[in-house]
Amino acid sequence: MPTVTQRADAMQIWRVALIASGVVLLAGGALVFVQDVPPERYPAVAAWLIGALVVHDGVAAMAVVVVSVLARRAGHRMPFVPFLIAQGALVVALIMSAVVVPQILKKAAGTANPSVLPLDYALNLGVFVAVLAAVTAAAIAVWAWRVRRPRRTGTSG
User: Fold this and answer.
1) Do residue 83 and residue 136 come from a single domain?
2) Does residue 4 belong to any structural domain of this protein?
3) Does the structure show a pLDDT above 60 at 157?
């Protein structure tokens, strides 16, 4: 079994490797951006990035924090694993909503070419959230079943 120092060294190596790969990917993305996007489009890209930041930090992250605080205050005995499963599902639903809601709004505003947004995005988002809720409930039910299941002993009697 590795010692604490060996594990810390391995974590340090992984940390450095992940940071280095992130910097390389960021530099590659910046290079492609500068080569492919004309400078007159930079303000629109900046506005989009600021909007994404506001949606993520101002809406999605705050929604997760608020739901987490309310859930913890509502039931102090709520087990940690189902709480994490539900929180993960909330994050997935918020990410999907952030991707799909602009399409819903644009389709409602109308487009010159109806084949650009051909689907019923509001219905699809509703179905996705319903399926996600069912899968989340099933995952929590499976966890509860496994926790309550009597443990088998290794001896035969």
Assistant:
1) yes
2) no
3) no
